[in-house]
UniProtKB/TrEMBL annotation:
Pathway: Glycolipid biosynthesis; glycosylphosphatidylinositol-anchor biosynthesis. Belongs to the PIGG/PIGN/PIGO family. PIGO subfamily. Keywords: Endoplasmic reticulum, Glycoprotein, GPI-anchor biosynthesis, Membrane, Transferase, Transmembrane, Transmembrane helix. PANTHER family: GPI ETHANOLAMINE PHOSPHATE TRANSFERASE 3, PHOSPHATIDYLINOSITOL GLYCAN. The gene is Pigo. This is GPI ethanolamine phosphate transferase 3, catalytic subunit. Its main location: endoplasmic reticulum. GO terms for cellular component: endoplasmic reticulum membrane.
């Protein structure tokens, strides 16, 4: 079909309307405000639940001193009065701490010789720290190698806090890995400074934020660029040996990052890991050669890494770190009693430790201390007594750790219940209001007055209560009270409907099969096994829903053109158009969708809980590939996917005539999008071969790696601004035609006086434009009035949505690995097929009401979740793509923390954003599919204007497509509101199920490993999706306002 464009006739009269333009504008504003208020209710519930579920521990500001003994009685070590001694005599005068980030225990473990008949184990990381093995064999009394079992979360900042303070990291602190804050509680660095020790640091700049001003000399290097394997390590080596030789230090700390960054970039099985560990071995060997007799060398890892090179969770590989000790003199061990004093001080401040357990631990410690003192007074005691003391102290330490974990994992059940109640009430509100929105009595104009009044009343009452009781204001509780207050009028209305017969139908408007699939999905959130396997369960549910749609369409005989139940203002309904689709058409769409779902599943990342699963190698960047031909082949495939995506979008826009206009947004789509694709392809070529570039070109490559991503993002931002400025890009051709003036009979005459007049006559104008263009209007010999040809009006809303989604997709694609471009291509193709399948059976009623079925909304939300997993993500911190923070910022962000967090968040929740912004397409696409075949026009009986039309003018009726939505602006706004509420309901019940699962299973073994991360990711995903949904609906309303302005100018020009 040719792109619709046609002359605009002159109009002499219009139908009256009872709605003013200001009221229509208020309807649009009310829809956005209502959806924003619903989102606020969800946010308040999430925040209140989070404040009761993810508690942070209390940090004590107490600091130890040499004058205050660690326990009751005298110091057993007899160190009082000795120079440089505090609680015990100093064994070493100097310490060199080499912290190798992510040094897993098996990286340092000696490589064992394989048994006869067994194949040799050849892994890149085995046996590369040969100096440790040689020292263990040659000097066994001077060396120790331990497996350090660290406490999760295994992120660097939390591990540094644990290493320097001796306390346990908490789960909520994992979010602070972007912004490290100074440690206030007692710590090793502060004690060394108090003792007058000179501390020299070099390496990870996280220490600068944790211990500001604590070092006598420091060499900090940016730590967050996970793609850079050498800058930090080489900077340390530049200062390490000169500092040791100078002797101007007592404690030397070197924090190397190359091993950790190599794991993030390549994984532990890459040859680069062998090179990096060999470099660390040379560093250790050089330090050993320079050590003096009074110096202790400590080589430690802060955490381990998974098989993929990530960390942050509590898997065995992540919590297993290496700890190596060496000194030219013999080593010995001792156990200070500081833990007992910490328990005493903490219990006095918080009063939340169990008294019986605390008393039992104190008795155990007193007994162990007494046994130890007797052993010191009688050194001839047997070794069995010493072992008894060691066992008692170990029991004490384990008990202290367990009681602290239990205390710091204490939940606020009141806040959790309140948050879950607000979430449940808001979900019910979405369900109730989505049914109410299509009724003629829906109060658009006074939509928020009553809820806002109740919210202000609740907040005022809460503030007044705090003022009376002199309690501290809690913003979280204040927001929750305001949210609960604003919900009361709707809950009251729902209670009034409880006794009505229609309440159950209002409460459960979702079709049975869709409701069953939704309940199955929500039930899986209560099982850790299903949460872990959600990446495989979601495509299954999506495929089941697709097959259900195909079977349902065929069974109900709805495989037709969209059902046009046209009801003119002055006539009766128009019969439905002829059938367009057969069962084979829907079957082809269904098979195509299932095939795309299956192909997208090939890009999967295995959870760490399933060791038998193997992650897709296609998720890794091209830079990690070894071998030029394979890398070049994959690069060609990625660029091909990029070009295919661009060509598909341009062909779609060209098919509907959206590339004809000379306006700036259309010119940008024609030339700006290819430039963005070209910049993306060049950037991929640079980053995939940066390490292979000649030395003389590396500066140029680094500069281009900085400029190209920013240029692509800048072009995308410019395109979005142009589109918002002129969202209606219609090609207009003016000239003197020969067509006769077109007249429509109405009770009133004159130009349009309101926005509603325009909204009513726009579909008629568009139909007349199409008829005049195809030569179906009567032509006379007299000179006709000015004739205007216009393009793209039938797809004006969808064209803007598709363009915006394409402009968003390019920057988001830059944040992913190159081969994810294939997933983005599948995403657009899968969305296209699903929209066509849903449009095949969705009825269109004119002039309304319009509605999107629950099947469509549920399938759209499931596809967003499936794309989240297909882009290599998992709802765990270890699977976060940290490399996205350095796209366009290869040298880091300095002290800025929000920008890297924004980039990583955009990478993680790209699928949520794209599907939420594109959600209005579910409403628009059935109207767009109307263009596939013209329809016969029947004369409406009783119409007074029928005498003005000739019989030959009534043969065919060209489809109005999306212009039908403007025939009933009230129903158009109501449909957008209903669609937004349905989408928020589907997302809201997911976050509600996650909250209930986390609260009910809060004592489950996997709560911090599975349920808590799932809740956090679902909560952030909901926030991103809700914001994207508001932006998508606001864009449709912006286009609608621009269409009205365009037609108003056109009609005024005709009148002149």
């Amino acid at each position: 079909m040719a792109p619709p464009h046609c002359p605009v006739p002159s109009l002499s009269s219009y139908f009256p309307t009872a709605v003013s333009s200001s009221n229509l504008r208020m309807q649009k504003v009310s829809v956005l405000l209502f959806l924003a208020w619903v989102c606020f209710l969800f946010y308040a519930g999430i925040t209140l639940f989070t404040s009761g579920f993810l508690l942070t521990r209390l940090e004590l500001t107490n600091h130890s001193s040499c004058q205050e003994p660690p326990g009751p009685g005298f110091l057993p070590w007899g160190s009082q009065g000795k120079p440089g001694a505090c609680w015990m005599a100093s064994r070493f005068s100097r310490v060199v701490l080499v912290l190798i980030d992510a040094l897993r225990f098996d990286f340092a473990q000696p490589q064992r010789s394989h048994m006869s008949g067994e194949p040799p184990v050849s892994l890149p990381f085995l046996g590369k720290l040969g100096s440790l093995q040689r020292l263990l064999e040659i000097q066994p009394y001077h060396t120790r190698l331990y497996r350090s079992q660290v406490d999760p979360p295994t992120t660097t900042m939390q591990r540094l806090k644990a290493l320097t303070t001796g306390s346990l990291p908490t789960f909520i602190d994992a979010g602070s890995n972007f912004a490290s804050h100074a440690i206030l509680e007692d710590n090793l660095i502060k004690q060394l400074n108090s003792a007058g020790r000179r501390i020299v640091f070099m390496g990870d700049d996280t220490w600068k934020d944790l211990f500001p001003g604590a070092f006598s000399k420091a060499f900090f290097f940016s730590s967050f660029n996970v793609k850079d394997l050498h800058t930090v390590d080489n900077g340390i080596l530049e200062h390490l040996y000169p500092t040791m030789d100078s002797g101007e230090w007592d404690v030397l700390i070197a924090h190397f990052l190359g091993v950790d960054h190599c794991g993030h970039k390549h994984g532990p099985h890459h040859p680069e890991m062998a090179k990096k560990l060999s470099q660390m071995d040379q560093v250790i060997q050089g330090l050993v050669e320079r050590l003096k007799n009074d110096t202790l060398l400590v080589v430690a890892g802060d955490h381990g890494m998974t098989m993929n090179g990530d960390h942050g969770g509590d898997s065995e590989l992540e919590v297993s770190a290496a700890l190596f000790l060496y000194s030219p003199t013999a080593l010995f061990a001792s156990t200070p009693p500081e833990v007992s004093r910490f328990l005493h001080a903490y219990s006095a401040v918080t009063q939340d430790l169990q008294v019986k357990k605390l008393h039992r631990l104190q008795n155990l410690f007193s007994k162990a201390s007494a046994d130890y003192q007797r052993l010191l007074q009688s050194p001839r005691g047997t070794e069995a007594k010493l072992q008894t003391v060691v066992t008692e102290l170990q029991q004490f330490l384990r008990g202290a750790r367990a009681i602290c974990i239990e205390s710091w994992a204490r939940f606020s059940l009141v806040r959790m219940a309140g948050g879950a109640a607000i979430l449940a009430a808001t979900c019910f509100l979405c369900l109730f209001a989505s049914q109410w929105a299509t009724s003629p009595a829906f109060p658009f104009y006074h939509l928020l007055l009553i809820p806002v009044a109740w919210a202000l009343a609740g907040a005022t009452l809460y503030v007044g209560l705090l003022t009376t009781t002199r309690l501290k204001l809690d913003l979280v509780v204040l927001g929750a009270v305001a949210a609960a207050g604003s919900l009361l009028p709707f809950l009251w209305k729902a209670w009034g409907s409880w006794r009505s017969k229609k309440f159950l139908a209002t409460l459960l408007p979702i079709p049975g099969p869709v409701l069953l699939l939704l309940l199955i999905r929500l039930a899986t959130f209560f099982s850790d096994s299903f949460v872990v396997a959600e990446a495989r369960a979601t495509p299954f549910l999506l495929g089941s829903l697709i097959m259900l749609l195909v079977v349902q369409l065929h069974w109900e005989g709805q495989l037709l053109a969209p059902k046009l139940l046209t009801v003119p203002r002055l006539g009766s309904s128009t019969p439905t158009g002829p059938p367009r689709h057969s069962g084979a058409y829907a079957l082809r769409l269904g098979v195509g969708l299932l095939l795309c779902t299956r192909l997208a599943g090939l890009f999967h990342r295995c959870p760490e809980e399933t060791p038998a699963c193997h992650s897709s190698p296609w998720l890794s960047p091209l830079a990690s590939m070894v071998g030029g031909p394979a890398k070049n082949l994959w690069y060609g495939a990625c660029v091909g996917a990029l070009v295919a995506l661009l060509v598909a979008v341009r062909l779609w826009l060209h098919h509907y005539g959206n590339l004809k206009s000379p306006e700036a947004p259309v010119l940008f789509v024609r030339w700006g999008l290819p430039l963005m694709a070209l910049g993306t392809a060049f950037y991929w070529a640079l980053v995939s071969g940066a390490e292979e570039a000649p030395p003389r070109l590396r500066a140029l490559v680094a500069g281009a790696s900085l400029v190209l991503p920013r240029a692509v993002v800048g072009l995308a931002a410019a395109g979005l601004m142009l589109l918002l400025w002129k969202p209606v890009t219609v090609l207009v051709k003016a000239g003197t035609g020969t067509s006769r003036t077109r007249t429509v009979l109405t009770p009133f005459s004159g130009p349009p006086t309101s926005q509603a007049d325009l909204d009513y006559v726009v579909p008629q104008i568009y139909r007349h434009m199409q008829e005049a263009f195809r030569g179906r209007l009567e032509r006379t010999k007299s000179q006709g009035p000015l004739t205007v040809a216009a393009y793209q009006l039938g797809s004006v809303y969808s064209a803007a949505m598709v363009t915006v989604l394409t402009l968003l997709a390019f920057p988001l694609l830059l944040l992913h690995a190159e081969r994810i471009s294939l997933v983005f291509l599948l995403l657009f193709l899968q969305s296209f097929l699903l929209l066509h399948l849903l449009a095949a059976g969705m009825p269109i009623t004119t002039p309304g009401p319009f509605a999107v079925p629950w099947q469509a909304v549920s399938a759209w939300a499931l596809m967003a979740t499936q794309t989240f997993y297909s882009t290599g993500h998992q709802p765990v911190f270890a699977a976060i793509h940290w490399h996205a923070a350095f796209v366009g910022f290869p040298e880091g962000h300095g002290s800025c923390t929000w920008l890297p967090a924004l980039l990583v968040g955009a990478n993680t929740f790209a699928a949520h954003l794209l599907f939420a912004v594109g959600c209005p397409l579910l409403l628009l696409w059935p109207f767009l599919c109307e263009s596939q075949r013209p329809r016969k026009r029947r004369k409406p009986p009783g119409a007074g204007a029928e005498a003005r039309f000739r019989p030959e003018e009534e043969k065919d009726e060209e489809p109005l497509m999306e212009m039908r939505l403007r025939d009933a602006p009230h129903h158009f706004n109501a449909a957008l509101l209903q669609l937004g509420l349905k989408y928020l309901f589907v997302l809201g019940v997911q976050i509600l199920a996650c909250a209930l699962a986390a609260s009910i299973l809060r004592r489950h073994l996997m709560v911090w490993k599975v349920f808590a991360p799932k809740f956090i990711f679902e909560a952030i995903g909901f926030i991103v999706s809700s914001v994207g949904l508001l932006l998508g609906i606001a864009l449709v309303m912006r286009v609608d306002g621009a269409v009205s302005s365009w037609f108003k100018k056109l009609v005024l020009a005709q009148q002149r």
